[in-house]
Specification:
Elements lengths: L21 H4 L21 H11 L6 E5 L11 H5 L5 E4 L9 E4 L13 E5 L2 E2 L19 E6 L13 E6 L8 E9 L3 E11 L3 E12 L8 E13 L4 E15 L6 H6 L9 E3 L2 E3 L5 H4 L2 E17 L2 E17 L6 E17 L10 E20 L2 E22 L1 E4 L2 E18 L5 E4 L2 E2 L2 E5 L3 E4 L5 E19 L2 E12 L3 H4 L1 E2 L23 E2 L6 E14 L2 E20 L5 E22 L4 E14 L16 E10 L4 E10 L3 E2 L7 E2 L2 E11 L4 E8 L7 E4 L12 E3 L4 E9 L1
Parallel strand pairs: 4-7
Antiparallel strand pairs: 1-6, 2-3, 4-5, 6-7, 8-9, 8-42, 9-10, 10-11, 11-12, 12-15, 13-14, 15-16, 16-17, 17-18, 18-19, 19-21, 20-21, 21-26, 22-25, 23-24, 26-27, 27-30, 28-29, 30-31, 31-32, 32-33, 33-34, 34-35, 35-38, 36-37, 38-39, 39-42, 40-41
């Protein structure tokens, strides 16, 4: 992601650029996050404006960021990965290039899921897109329909109902009163990319409303790599009085994408646009283990409907916020044959209440704040055989129920003129229940001939093993933060915190004992009568961690910086393991792991028309004396990740920018640290020209040097040297578009 800067102080998303006062209305934590006055971001912006903004941003003792819409560079491929990739501490690894399922991880939480569906709380206007068990589909988060994205790393998300190690992302919708009139954008380019988005806002003296929609389609860089997404949403706000407001919002997402599979390294280097046909059988055994994408046609199709309402009332120093939300999700995921086809349909209901006491109107944070959030949901899950890319016989049926209660209370006590003391405590109670509705004595299996993988073998069956479970989890997460402000432009902070993360149903109910040529419960394709379990239901503990962190952020003249470092001692880390072929082994708790990281952002106005920024993330996540893995690095986490951009403001209307994404060191594919993805660097260039107050055109070239690289990898426990484990990034692409405001 590149950032279009229009003045020196606005130089990096890490430094929480700017937003206007509307953001508070649907910020994740009214009364606790930043009440920002409207800021005009232009060349004539005054130093007083910058100082006032920075003073408010510096209030939180922890890692936070704000990505306003104007800070996201125009692109022909508008994805959540593009919107977040330049925020230090947020690692976004593209899987398939479109509106799919990028691996987003913050401080390593949920890192080892394939795909990642746990580890952070994803919110829209302060209400969760996650299901009641904590799982989420990241493709439902649409940056095109957000005027800003709030990023809370680590314990700073506790006030939002998230006690997980990673944190939270909140996508803030615009309001009609702040975006009157209409906007339209059309863009497209390489890989069959086409995107159209529109927005219309209206308002009166005591009400406003906004409607928006976007549609994206893409053929993809690779064979079998298509994707599409339709998003429709809107909100209506009512001001009942000067102190009481209500906003009602609704949205619908329709997401579909082909799952282009991993490649062996030599195949990726030879032709990264290809897909893989599974293991190759030789007289000495099978080589190139991995899924057969050509035959199994893995794909995801998911829809989600969301409706909710938030009412905020201010009575002097007291701020009250109440909300409810409901989501209905219909998700079909056609995995390779080793896992089959998984369908999940169900609804989740959330009740939310927040209170803040703020006797000092000039203070950026309240003296006391509290949050209570309760989410409950149920779903019907079906499991079916994948027979040559078609949904076959069912082999599992489950009723899944979940609930999560999160409570938070905290203080922000000014000790002296320059110190603030912020103790807090969170409590979480979670339930996970599965009722196995499979009534037959056996579960069917299917297989293909490994030597001739298009030829079906005789069907089989394995004895039914009951998968029902009823689990509950409770955990307390205290925290303590301290900030010191030596002057109005600098803040030094330190914090210690606990985190608590229960497993999801995907951790607790996993398909196992499949192979690249056979379904779950059939570890030997040629033996249909070999008794084996089709599901694993491990008795998992919740993941907990103790984290210490410290940071320093500030601004001096034309320079700005934000530096955070943390160290986490993690117990019972949830790992979703896979074997060398990519088949699921189920989830386990690692005994002890450690997560150490550094999150840095720097920005500067270099010369009169030149500005630059750099964001650097360091991650060292390790097992701690594991009996099998020793002190190995956790697979999938790049140790160093850098994004940087240099911008030239050629004229008041014409902007040029170059940006680089750089992973400078090899990244382990497996927990045994035997296979690694190579280092890589990708350079993008883009330009934008404002024709007049109505029309703006832009263009970009991505991966200008056509680098062949693995943007992500499959994560397995122990790999082989020839394994299909590498997911190639897009080759060189050309994109252009036009934006209009009426």
């Amino acid at each position: 992601m590149g950032i279009i800067w229009k003045s020196a102080p606005v130089v990096t998303t890490l430094l929480l650029s700017t937003t206007s006062q509307w953001a508070l209305a649907q910020s994740a934590a009214p009364g606790t996050v930043l009440e920002l006055e409207p800021i005009v971001v232009e060349a004539t912006r005054t130093g007083e404006d910058s100082a006032a903004l920075q003073q408010r941003l510096n209030a939180i003792a922890g890692g936070v960021a704000l990505v306003p819409r104007d800070a996201i560079a125009p692109t022909g491929n508008p994805t959540v990965a593009h919107a977040l990739e330049s925020v230090p501490g947020v690692i976004v690894q593209s899987f398939f290039g479109g509106n799919d399922q990028p691996r987003i991880q913050i401080r390593g939480s949920g890192l080892q899921q394939n795909p990642v569906e746990r580890g952070i709380l994803v919110l829209q206007d302060g209400l969760p897109l996650n299901r009641a068990d904590g799982s989420y589909i990241v493709g439902f988060a649409d940056p095109q329909q957000a005027d800003a994205i709030e990023v809370f790393r680590g314990y700073t998300a506790n006030r939002l109902g998230a006690t997980v190690l990673g944190g939270a992302l909140n996508f803030i919708s615009p309001k009609g009163s702040d975006a009157p009139g209409a906007r339209l954008s059309v863009s497209g380019g390489s890989f069959g990319q086409a995107n159209v988005a529109g927005q219309a806002g209206f308002g009166g003296e005591a009400y406003d409303g906004l409607l928006q929609a976007d549609f994206t389609t893409r053929d993809g860089f690779r064979d079998y790599n298509g994707s599409r997404r339709l998003s429709v949403g809107g909100n209506v706000g009512f001001a009942w009085s000067d102190t009481v407001t209500t906003r009602v919002f609704a949205g619908y997402r329709d997401l579909a994408f082909d799952v282009a599979g991993p490649l062996p390294w030599d195949a990726l280097k030879a032709r990264p646009s290809q897909n893989w046909g599974g293991p190759v059988v030789t007289p000495s055994g099978a080589i190139y283990p991995g899924p057969n994408v050509h035959r199994d046609r893995p794909r995801r199709e998911a829809t989600q409907f969301l409706i909710g309402s938030r009412t905020t009332a201010t009575f002097g120093a007291h701020i009250l916020d109440g909300a409810f939300g409901y989501t209905y999700t219909d998700d079909m995921f056609r995995f390779p044959i080793s896992s089959g086809v998984r369908t999940t349909k169900g609804g989740d209901f959330t009740l939310l209440g927040r209170y803040a006491y703020k006797p000092d109107a000039d203070s950026p944070l309240p003296l006391f704040e509290a949050t209570a959030q309760y989410t409950v949901g149920s779903a019907e899950r079906g499991n079916y055989l994948n027979i040559g890319g078609q949904q076959g016989q069912p082999f599992g049926r489950s009723d899944l129920d979940a609930s999560t209660l999160s409570l938070f209370a905290g203080l922000n006590i000014p000790l002296w003129e320059k110190f603030t003391f912020s103790p807090a405590i969170s409590y979480a109670h979670a339930t996970r229940e599965n009722k196995d509705r499979w009534a037959l004595p056996t579960r069917p299996t299917t297989a293909f001939n490994p030597a001739r993988p298009s030829i079906l073998l005789p069907n089989g069956a394995v004895p039914t093993q009951n998968t029902s479970y009823d689990r509950s989890y409770d955990g307390w997460s205290p925290s303590l933060g301290v900030t010191w402000r030596p002057d109005e432009n600098q803040t030094v902070f330190a914090a210690v915190s606990r985190s608590f993360e229960p497993p999801t149903h995907d951790d607790l109910l996993a398909t196992v004992n499949g192979t690249p040529n056979s379904s779950p419960g059939r570890p030997n394709p040629a033996n249909p009568r070999l008794a084996a379990a089709a599901f694993a239901t491990p008795d998992l503990d919740a993941q907990t961690a103790t984290t210490v962190e410290a940071g320093w952020r500030g601004r001096y003249g034309d320079f700005s910086w934000d530096a955070v470092t943390y160290y986490s001692w993690v117990r019972d880390e949830l790992l979703s393991l896979r074997d060398a072929t990519g088949a699921s082994l189920g989830a386990v708790n690692a005994d002890r792991t450690t997560h150490f990281g550094v999150e840095l952002g720097f920005g500067a106005k270099l010369w009169e028309r030149w500005s630059g920024r750099i964001a650097y993330t360091y991650q060292d996540f390790r097992f701690d004396g594991d009996p099998v893995r020793g002190d190995n690095r956790l697979a999938g986490a790049p140790r160093h990740f850098v994004t940087a951009a240099l911008q030239f403001q050629a004229t008041d209307k014409w902007t040029l920018q170059g940006a680089v994404r750089w992973s400078p060191e090899k990244t382990p594919v497996d927990n045994m640290n035997t296979l690694y993805a190579d280092a890589w660097a990708v350079v993008d260039v883009r330009t934008e020209y404002r024709i007049n107050d109505t029309f703006t055109v832009f263009g970009e070239i991505t991966n200008i040097f056509d680098e062949t690289y693995a943007s992500s990898t499959l994560i397995v426990d122990q790999a082989t040297a020839d394994q299909a484990a590498f997911l190639p990034g897009d080759g060189r692409g050309f994109f252009a578009g036009v934006k209009a405001t009426f």
